[in-house]
Design a protein that fits this description.
294 residues, rod-shaped, Ribosomal Protein S5, domain 2, alpha+beta
């Protein structure tokens, strides 16, 4: 079964003090183009996430987001770096002794020290705990699994539409047959009428028959019809080979287009040309959607 490159997945990792959300979206692309937005604490795991994406997604423009939400009712204090506070305190005391500048009053010490650089350590800068990462990584793989399931669902819809388009082209191709004999007779009639009106002398009717046969053979479309039928069968067979056939289906659609265009240029008949236009409409729908196939 084919897969679409369009998909969506989302999962959540529940931790004691926070909730980690993972969201992944994908659109069509010639290759895998992954863009990652990660909360600071998880940036060190970017390569692990990219490796997982490339292993299972193969193609598509992928937008991956991982962000953190604090749980309601949970107050997480920003840690104070005690060693930095002590170092600042000793420096201020030393400067006071050397310069004679009075030390701050005890009430002012904390307001001064807590404003100095690097005293408050943000949680995001702490080293990521491996047990926490195991929980978050499970959410990452769950979101990717949801994306793949979405792609398969979209793939089933695409396959049904492709089969409908191909069946319509095959039906339209069969509708050309009744026009074949009529077309030959009309071409012959048009040429003989033009000769009768413009040339008022006798001409070799046997030679005219030979020339007409040669001319009509050049307009024969049986080979194009057979090749087009073969391409239609090939398209369906390729659909059934499973995912990873998007580029191949695109090439087959191009070949189908060439045969339809040749039919149009050789038709020389209003009814046949109308059928060719309908075939082109079905083919354009295929070409538009085949870009989304893995």
């Amino acid at each position: 079964m084919i897969q679409s490159m369009t998909g969506y997945g989302k999962a959540t990792a529940e931790l004691p003090e926070k909730k980690v959300n993972v969201e992944i979206k994908s659109l069509n692309s010639k290759a895998l183009d992954a863009s990652l937005r990660l909360a600071p604490a998880y940036r060190e795991k970017e390569m692990d996430i990219r490796a997982e994406l490339s292993k299972v997604l193969e193609r598509g423009k992928v937008d991956f987001s991982l962000w953190v939400e604090k749980k309601e009712g949970v107050d997480v204090a920003i840690p104070i770096n005690k060693s930095v506070v002590s170092a600042y305190y000793r420096q201020i005391e030393e400067i006071s002794r050397q310069t004679g500048i009075p030390e701050p009053s005890p009430a002012d010490w904390y307001s001064i020290l807590l404003r100095l650089p690097d005293v408050l350590t943000k949680t995001e800068s702490l080293e990521l705990d491996e047990a926490e990462w195991t929980t978050v990584y499970a959410a990452v793989t769950e979101a990717i699994g949801q994306l793949i399931a979405f792609r398969r669902q979209e793939g089933r819809a695409l396959e049904a539409k492709f089969r409908e388009n191909i069946a319509n082209i095959a039906r339209l191709l069969g509708e050309i047959d009744p026009y074949e004999k009529e077309r030959v007779e009309k071409i012959k009639e048009r040429i003989t009428d033009a000769l009768a009106k413009t040339i008022h002398v006798d001409y070799d009717k046997n030679r005219l028959e030979q020339e007409l046969i040669y001319y009509i053979e050049k307009l024969d479309v049986n080979e194009e019809k057979q090749r087009l039928t073969n391409h239609l069968h090939y398209f369906i067979n390729t659909l059934e080979e499973g995912h990873g056939q998007g580029k191949k289906l695109g090439f087959i659609a191009q070949e189908i287009g060439r045969e339809i265009n040749t039919l149009g240029s050789k038709s020389n008949h209003a009814g046949m040309q109308k059928i060719v236009v309908q075939m082109k409409d079905e083919l354009e729908q295929i070409k538009e959607q085949v870009l989304n196939v893995m």
